[in-house]
Amino acid sequence: ISPIDENRRLIGYDLGADPTVLKAMEKAYQTQMPSAVYPGKGLLKDQRLLVLHPLFSDDATGAKKPSGFIAGFINPQLFLEGAIRNYFLVTSNTALDIIDITEGHRSEFIAFYPPDHGYENSLPSQMTYFQSYKDYNLLPFCFFDRSLTAVVHTTDAFYDEHPLRAGWRAAVSGLFLTLMFTVFVAFLRTRQ
Questions:
Q1: pTM of the full predicted structure?
Q2: CB contact at 8 A, 119 and 112
Q3: Nearest-5° angle of CA 181, CA 184, CA 188?
Q4: CA distance 71 to 54
Q5: CB contact set of 99 (below 8 Å; sequence gap of 6+)
Q6: Which terminus of the chain is more exposed, N or C, with fewer CB under 10 A?
């Protein structure tokens, strides 16, 4: 365990005592592939992803039998912040949310950038979330056995710096509504 000082309480911890971790361990053994899970809140102070890689050894008959795990924690928030700071030019005009959308689990934020716009891991209803942004791009991806999506969206600072773009959006919306209203009126006239 490293670093040992801040993780001393993990020594001797029974991962199988947490039902969600036990389920991920069983899945890893069945699929013989790494599995990732969020352990119970009592194990760690912050939200970290526990990655479990199953190990197998050959028995006398040559069949593979489970012999243990290599386990590691990943803090998605720190991972995202480091990646963006080191490799991307990010301005206050855009924000990035990473949401876990794995089937059979409650959707939740696992990371967001910039850190001050987060929702403290409580995802509002999906309709409310997506209606709160004018522009957004969804970029789905898989991380071990988790289904995630990156939501890149503009912030209010973008529209403050680019008022013409906001006006253009309103104009196009107005033209579209006018066109729909005109078609509807034409339809009613032809019915008479």
A1: 0.64
A2: yes
A3: 135
A4: 9
A5: 107, 108, 109, 110, 123, 148, 149, 151
A6: C
Report which of 72, 74, 97 is spatially closest to residue 84, judged by C-alpha positions. Answer: 97
Pair 147, 100: CB distance under 8 Å: yes
**Could you give the strand order of the β-sheet that contains 64-74, starting from the edge strand earlier in sequence?**
35-37, 49-58, 64-74
Which is nearest to 34 in space by CA: 50, 58, 15, 11? 50
Q: Of 40, 48, 119, whose CA–CA distance to 79 is shortest? A: 48
Report the C-alpha gap between 171 and 166 in whole angstroms: 9
Reported as a single tens digit per residue, the pLDDT across 47-93 is 678 888 999 988 888 788 888 888 888 888 888 888 777 766 556 67
Residue whose C-alpha is closest to residue 29's, from 3, 4, 56, 7:
56
The residues near 17 (Cβ < 8 Å, ≥ 6 apart) are: none
**Cα angle for residues 40, 44, 46 (degrees, 5° grid):** 105
pLDDT tens track for 116-175: 665 554 555 555 666 666 677 888 888 877 888 888 887 777 777 776 665 667 777 778
Residue 26: CA count within 13 A, CB half-sphere: 8
Q: Which residues contact 92 (CB under 8 A, 6 or more apart)?
A: 114, 155, 157
CB atoms within 10 A of CB 149: 15
